[in-house]
Amino acid sequence: MASQIAPLPSGELRIEQFLLGRTRGEGLFQDFTGRIRRRFAITLDGRMENGVLVLTEDFVFDDGQTERRVWRISPQAGGVYWATADDMIGEARGAQRGGALRWSYLFSLKLGARRLRVRFRDTFVQVANDALLNEARVTKFGFELGRTTIIIRRDI
Fold it and tell me: What number of CA atoms fall less than 13 Å from residue 18's CA on the CB side?
């Protein structure tokens, strides 16, 4: 018997609603050849402060390394979003259209003892009532360095 996919609450993703409270995820980073370079687990804690989603991400990587990033996501009129985060250069700008949220930003990526300035192009799609898929292309000078894929689940 085939499983049924429950309809989503609405056709539009509202990331500030989905990520409220505690959510958890798993993900991986693949280089430009498709080789898996890193796997990680992530715990996310989201709270609203004056209309801004403050989202704390705690990563645990497969090599035991940990990392914390704090996002501030500001929903604007017309499905537009602005966001800032640790290690981000400037801010992310994007919009929710057709059930997906897409945004782009420059990021100072830590590679060992040095940092590399890269561009992230993120797409978020709510694939079930309790699941959000985040795929990001990572580029430098327009060339793809790799991709990050994360599935985030909430307890409902």
Answer: 27
